[in-house]
Write a structure and sequence with these properties.
With about 170 residues, the protein is an alpha/beta fold. It has a single domain, classed as Rhodanese-like domain (Oxidized Rhodanese, domain 1, 3-Layer(aba) Sandwich). The chain contains 8 helices and 5 strands. A 5-stranded parallel sheet has the order 1-5-4-2-3. β2, α3 and β3 form a beta-alpha-beta unit. The chain is globular and about 35 Å long.
Length: about 170
């Protein structure tokens, strides 16, 4: 019995989700070897810029619609199930929700970057300008963190597997 308990304690961490919360700081995003997944919308990438070398995989659309299957498929193209990676949004509210969804329900090893892009910008991080192929979109200005704080006060919906965006 004791052998079984010891084995369970030693290997049990492989059976459970691994969710870690780390503040989003310039030092972390510049020095980490982890892949960073930016789950914000394209509009937010345009407004605030992006973290250098981050993978841009939107979870919620502009109307808070979502397609968990598509998101998971896109995520699986970037990370392996047993690979630890970080996720970031504007303030950390969506990543808190998504990290629990990914870690607890789907057993990914997730690092939730608390404070999000707002914290990075507040601490002096210089984001990359999101540049799509059209010149109209690449000329969008990056807005300040204080301008975006107003948008982050809306509550987020609960994630359900069968919901899909239009």
């Amino acid at each position: 019995m004791i052998k079984k308990l010891v084995l369970f304690l030693l290997f049990g961490n492989m059976l459970f989700a691994e969710i870690t919360n780390i503040p989003a700081t310039p030092k972390f995003v510049e020095e980490t070897k982890l892949k960073i997944i930016d789950i914000r919308t394209k509009g937010e990438w345009l407004q605030m810029g992006t973290v250098k070398d981050a993978y841009l995989i939107t979870f919620f659309d502009e109307q808070y619609g979502y397609n968990p299957k598509k998101f998971l498929d896109d995520l699986d193209d970037v990370v392996k199930k047993d690979e630890q990676f970080a996720i970031i949004c504007n303030s950390g509210s969506r990543t808190k929700l998504i990290s629990n969804f990914l870690g607890n329900k789907h057993k990914y090893k997730v690092v939730n970057l608390t404070g999000g892009m707002l914290n990075l910008l507040k601490e002096g991080y210089k984001p990359e300008v999101y540049n799509r192929s059209t010149t109209q979109l690449s000329k969008q200005k990056i807005v300040s963190a204080s301008e975006l704080l107003k948008k982050e006060s809306e509550p987020l919906p609960e994630i359900k597997e069968n919901n899909s965006s239009k």
